[in-house]
Write a structure and sequence with these properties.
It is built from three helices and six strands; from the N terminus they run βββααβββα. The strands form two sheets. The protein has a three-stranded antiparallel β-sheet with strand order 1-2-3, with no helix packed on it. Strands 4-5-6 form a three-stranded antiparallel β-sheet.
Length: 77
């Protein structure tokens, strides 16, 4: 897989899901129930995210949560 394509460019939430837009235009969605810290966070806390490693991961300072794009894609063991 092209490493550039597996980079996040944007994050959004629905009531029950985390949705990450990738550089190649794909969107990866996962249930919030898989991420207890994000599920318990307020909308304001969820909105304060930043990309790390040029988009290889996402970090939320308020709740000290990190997610990798590779993990979301099931590419990590």
């Amino acid at each position: 897989m092209d490493s550039e394509a597996a980079r996040a460019v944007a994050v959004r939430f629905t009531k029950d899901a985390l949705i990450v837009q990738l550089a190649d235009g794909r969107e990866v969605a996962a249930p919030l129930s898989q991420f207890p810290r994000l599920q318990a966070a307020s909308d304001a806390q969820r909105a304060r995210w930043r990309l790390i490693g040029h988009g290889v991961g996402i970090h939320w300072d308020d709740i000290d949560e990190d997610l990798s794009v590779a993990g979301l894609l099931g590419l990590e063991d």
